Amino acid sequence: MQPGKRVKSAGRREGEGRMENGSSGVLSEFQQGNVDAFETLFRLHHRAVYGWILRIVRNPAAAEDIAIETFWRIHRAHARFDSARGFEPWARRIATNAALDWLKAARPENEVNTQPVDELAATGTADPAISAEIRSKTAQAFGRLAPKLRIAATLAVVEERPSREVAEALGITVAAVKLRVFRALRLLRKDLEQQGIRP
User: What is the CATH number of domain 22-106?
Assistant: First the structure.
């Protein structure tokens, strides 16, 4: 083996190690359009991005598709990445926007999903004796919320994420998050009362 090749190989392994750790070096390379850096960030962050999206859309197959769309958007926007803000918050915001686009395009009446309601019941914040019919009606009411309100309520109430984190993901202020959650809960209560359910 030639000495020059060994040095190059060792240097490459060292660079790959930096990329594996998600250092500022890989972020800088990503910002410059380096495909290897993008692939490293994809490997490091795919699971977290998928999990974040799943919290919002409550549909594993859709969450996987949206995660891929998110990374496609991340790749296209590499030049706009601001390393001072960090990759994870930036990726969460792009993922949230992709999930919001999916929710806007989805037809809630075709996708009755009781998971958020079931999770509230399981965490003890709701009466565990809630009937399947009430859970179903609550899920339908939840699905009728405007997507922006639904995302805020899902992340803040169901997932119990900090308002600051939700605000950062949505690109709004903490006060706006609280307002959206308040409006979502008020609309849910009104919808359920119209269905004969006293929340």
Answer: 1.10.1740.10
Helices (H), ranges, the chain: 3-20, 24-31, 35-57, 60-76, 87-105, 115-122, 132-143, 147-153, 163-170, 174-194
Ordered by start, the domain boundaries in the chain are: 22-106, 110-199
26-46 CB burial, b ≥16 within 10 A, e <16: bbebbeeeeeebbebbbebbb
Token couple for 152: 């805020």
Share of the chain above pLDDT 70, in %: 76
pLDDT in tens, 90-122: 999 999 999 999 998 876 544 445 455 455 444
pLDDT band at 44 (very low <50, low <70, confident <90, very high): very high
pTM: 0.70
Q: How far apart are the first and last CA of the chain?
A: 75
What is the C-alpha separation between 49 and 33, in angstroms, rounded? Answer: 20
Q: Do residues 70 and 49 make contact, with C-beta atoms less than 8 angstroms apart?
A: yes
- CA pair distance 36, 108, nearest whole angstrom: 39
Span 110-199 CATH architecture: Orthogonal Bundle (1.10)
Rounded CA gap, 54 and 135, in Å? 20
